[in-house]
Predict the 3D structure of the following.
Amino acid sequence: MKKPNFVVIGAPKSGTTSLFYYLHQHPDIYLPTKKELHYFSYPFIKQTLNGPGDDLVLAGLCADLESYLSHYKAVKNQKRIGEVSPSYLLYDEARHNIKSELGDDVKIIAILRNPVQKAYSQYMHMVREQHETETFMRGLELEPQRVAAGWWDMWLYASSSRYASHLQRYYDTFKKEQILVLIFEDFMLDTPAAMKIVFKFLDIDDTVFIDTEQIYNRTGESKVKEISTFLNHPSSIKSFFKKIIPDKIRLQFREQIMRWNTGKKPAIDPKAEAFLNQYFKEDIQAVSDLLGRKLPW
């Protein structure tokens, strides 16, 4: 049974869904139909699910090797086999599981976004999913309590958006040449050029045309909350369709509905923005030093 030889580790709300769909288009790459298997972080996610609605998180994730490998049964002769699970960057111990299961030569891709914008996008994601009911600033104020209570990482808008220590641990575990770090703002500014960088890193044909016009998994307020509630909570109707409709078609349809139902994202609260600018100041500098480049943040 073939296993992944590259893994996209995150960060969440930093373009990983778009990257997933763009990678899917390359004939030399195999990716499962489903994004976010979270197999290597499953034991750690399982320990932090005490928030409202967190009990739904584990549904569909891979709890064991057999279920994980079942997503790779259709691999043929593709040179690169991948997985995209944004939790792997945050849950540091996932890196040991990745190395143990996939070997020393696995390639690691991270994509990092301005942490202020990432934190706010994560908040809006939870609003869209009908979980978060507090304002963004109030959510930030409540974060220490949520951390102490063991809420899922998606509730931790600020603390889950600090990258330096997590990235350093990956550098401590894998050879530097095995890790590619993309910057979200560069990725969005010239996506075709960014994809060429990714393909060169994966040592596959970088001249293949990739349609990068569509941006996936945007965040914003739901136009119709009932639709969002239906899509993000279990139901007997969804269970029925899951049995009769192939995953690829079902997930594509869900993405289209979510895209239609996602409205504009309100401007960030200036008070929250000022707080986060100060909160992330040292971490941004640490990431800049780690990567040896000035960041557009």
